[in-house]
Every structure is written in C-alpha cells, then in structure tokens.
Design a protein that fits this description.
Blueprint lengths: L8 E6 L6 H14 L3 E4 L17 H9 L6 E4 L2 E2 L5 H14 L4 E6 L4 H7 L7 H19 L4 E5 L4 E5 L12 E4 L6 H8 L2 E4 L3 H18 L7 E10 L3 H14 L10 E3 L1 H13 L4 E6 L5 H15 L1
Parallel strand pairs: 1-2, 1-12, 2-3, 3-5, 4-5, 5-8, 8-9, 9-10, 10-11, 10-12
Antiparallel strand pairs: 6-7
C-alpha cells in the first residue's frame, strides 16, 4: 500500500489520429472547461493503431496550439520519442510550451518503439531497444540539469555532446516536471526512479503493482523517496449510465481508428462503476487516471470524468 502524497487527478489522452484540427481542439477545450486536470497527446509521425497511412497530427505543435485555447489543465506528450530530437532541443520546446501555457507544461519522455516511422522519415532508431533506453537515460539526465538552470559547460557522453549549453529563459514553473513512460524493469524504471517526477504505465492491478514494486526497489537503491513520483495509469473507459451503450460507443470509436480489438480491462459504464473498478489502483498509489480518448472524442466521457475523480477522492 502506498503512502503517496499525490491527490487524485484525471486526464485525457486525445489521440492525434485525425485530419481535423477543430475536432481535437474542441475536445481539449471541452476537457479544460470540464475541470479535467491534464490533457495529453502522442508523439508519433505515423498512425500507430490501425493502418499506418491514417492521418495524424504532430504532437508538440498540437500542445502549443492547445496552450492558447485552454486555461487550467497541464499539457504534455504521452510520451515524447527521445529518438526524434536532441535533448537540448526538447528542453527548449518544453520551456517554450511552459511559457505559452502559463506554467502548465509536463515533459513526457520515452525510449521510442515504432520502427516504421523512423524508417519512413530517416530517423536513427539506434541498434536496439537497450541502446534506445541507454540514450533515454542520458537524455533525461541532461534535460533535468538544463531545466533546473545548470549551464552544462562540457558533456561528452555516449550519445550526446554539449558545450556551454544553457536553457534561457527558464521555465515558468520552479520545477518543470518530467514524466517517464514505460515499465521496463532494468532500464526504464531505473531512469524513472532516478529522475522522474511522474511515471506512466498500464495493465491489471497485479501488473502495475508488480512494476511499482520494481520502481520502489530502484528508488531504495538510489536513496530516493519513491512517493515523490506521481503514478499515472492509462485506461480505456467510456462513461454512460447504460453499460451496453458505453460498450457500443467504445467499439465504434475503435472501428473509427481502424481497430476492432477489445480488452478485458475496458471500463464501460457509469462513473460509479468505473470509480469502483479503479479504486484498487488508487489504493495502490496510482492516483492520476488517464483515459485513452479516440476520435471522435466522446463528449459525455470527457464531461463526466470529473465525477469519477470526485468518487475516488471521497
């Protein structure tokens, strides 16, 4: 059982698999007005669910545009592909987003996994998953130092080189948070234990508790309080008072994105039903609940998600 100090929060992950900026813009505005705590999108160059040829909007520029039409929700990528950019450029982009949004940016980072988009656009996918995670660790280390105001006079690392690097202006936030996505036990979770302010995962209660146990061991090895790290859980959910209708809506949204898969972990029903299913996760310390939201971005789910938060916080 976690002794977490983090409040219960809810967020939406608005899939950018769309050709309609007004559609995804309006979904973000709806979420912000409903009082949802966080709004996220992907960092991909090809569609990752269904046929890869589907239209998809770019992540960082989507966040920048959202910053101008929202007022309270935090904004971030779930998660940024470390392979796409040098960490110095990533830090400058996150800092600029923090200024555009009035201090609402979150820097989400992961090792990257979708080889097809790297081949398509000529981006180095490195030699394998292990090497990508080693590069992620080095990049997150550099990002934290730059975000915290350090001038990196010289860095000659395995993957990155910097000479008199500095991030000015500083972020609006005193500590711009870094979120690490993924549950690899040896490398990803160790990077999260060392540097992350938040960590994202998914799966059954047994799965995520097992991952959390490994994260806590890495924290113990590093001498860090594991409860400093906010746990973020991604789920599939559609909110309706009629569970059958909710199930139909989720199936329709999956089909609209070129997928007919289903998952036993799907949560389709009333806010009370969804909150009850989520309670074991919250009791285990996963207090930030993030709902995958596909086009056409279900309005009722977005608008009623704060009801789930209220039930879990009560």
């Amino acid at each position: 059982m976690s002794t977490t100090r983090h409040p219960v929060r809810t967020g939406v992950l608005l899939w950018p698999q769309t050709r309609s900026w007004p559609e995804i813009r309006d979904a973000a505005v709806r979420a912000d007005r409903a009082g949802i705590d966080s709004i996220w999108t992907w960092d991909h160059l090809n569609a990752i669910v269904g046929p890869w040829q589907q239209p998809i909007l770019e992540g960082w520029t989507t966040l920048a545009a959202w910053s101008q039409v929202t007022n309270r929700a935090t904004l971030g990528l779930m998660v940024g592909a470390n392979t796409f950019r040098n960490p110095g450029l990533t830090v400058k982009m996150a800092t600029t987003l923090d200024h555009l949004s009035g201090g609402r940016a979150v820097l989400g980072l992961g090792g990257a996994w979708f080889e097809r988009e790297h081949e398509a656009f000529g981006i180095d996918f490195r030699s394998g998953f292990g090497e990508r995670l080693d590069a992620l660790d080095e990049a997150v280390m550099l990002s934290r130092r730059l975000l915290d105001g350090e001038r990196i006079v010289r860095h000659d690392g395995r993957f990155y080189q910097m000479a008199d690097a500095l991030c000015e202006p500083r972020p609006v936030q005193t500590r711009l948070p870094i979120l690490i996505g993924g549950s690899g036990p040896r490398k990803t979770l160790r990077t999260a234990a060392r540097y992350a302010d938040a960590w994202n995962t998914s799966g059954s209660v047994e799965d995520v508790v097992g991952h959390d146990r490994i994260l806590r061991q890495h924290c113990a090895d590093l001498g860090r309080d594991p409860d400093e790290i906010e746990r973020v859980l991604t789920i599939d959910a559609i909110l309706r008072d009629d569970p059958a209708q909710a199930t139909r809506v989720l199936a329709e949204h999956r089909a609209a994105n070129g997928s007919d898969e289903s998952d036993p972990g799907d949560l389709c029903g009333s806010p009370a039903f969804v909150a009850e299913r989520l309670r074991p996760f919250v009791e285990a310390g996963f207090t930030h609940i993030l709902v995958d939201t596909r086009r056409p971005y279900d309005a009722e789910t977005i608008e009623r998600l704060p009801e789930v938060r209220a039930l879990l916080a009560g």
